[in-house]
Amino acid sequence: MLTVSTVNVNGLRAAAKKGFTEWFAATGADVVACQEVRADAESLSARLREPDGWHTAHAACSIKGRNGVCLYSRVEPESVRVGFGEAEFEESGRYVEMHLPGLVVASLYLPSGDVGTERQEEKERFMRAFLPYLVELRGKAEASGREVLVVGDWNIAHAEIDLKNWRGNRNNSGFLPEEREWMGRVFGEAGYVDLQRKLDPEGPGPYTWWSYRGKAFDNDSGWRIDYLVATPGLAQRCTSVVVERAETYDQRWSDHAPVTATFDWDWPS
What we know:
The protein is α+β, with helices and mostly antiparallel strands and 269 residues long. The chain is 24% helix and 24% strand. GO terms for molecular function: double-stranded DNA 3'-5' DNA exonuclease activity.
């Protein structure tokens, strides 16, 4: 079996003090992807930077304390790539990929936006540049006999079943018609598969992010914005996708929950 987990940690050093370290020590995952690390590798403790038994790839943001993604793999990667070739985002700490035996796995932190601001314009530029790269990545992987798995915080709820209060968010970033249409293109022209929806096409949810404000977590008023997106061959091998939602509010170590997928795969261990 192959097991892959993804989680937006909302600051890795802070999460480590609140429960991430214990979760990571107990995980059975072969690959763990983190987003919003908010630290470069040199600023992390050794057990976060290079845990025993793991190979790591870190992509920090050039602006200190912002963004940041990383990958942990129990299998040594053949190569690592930071960024996807778009100059504006090469040092933004938003994308890193590992080339593993038969698999390219990537950790993605797509920008969040705010309608009518430069942040939304940045998000739209990222989306325009990233979709062609996904197409290119799939083509190159197929040519080399690899599957692709892009996981992380995509900051878009694709459909009404992907957030609790969809009516109240139709004009907000993360659920705009053009963002949802773009996600549809990822699953259409780019040819990728949303693993959660492959196994659970009806919904609603399960949600992966809940605001810290109000009673969002207690009322399960969340958004599904953390995705595991795979090429079709790998998607056919997916046997489960589980959102590891904390049992209680005070047991949360991030405003996101880890999402873990398992695959029927003859994986080296």
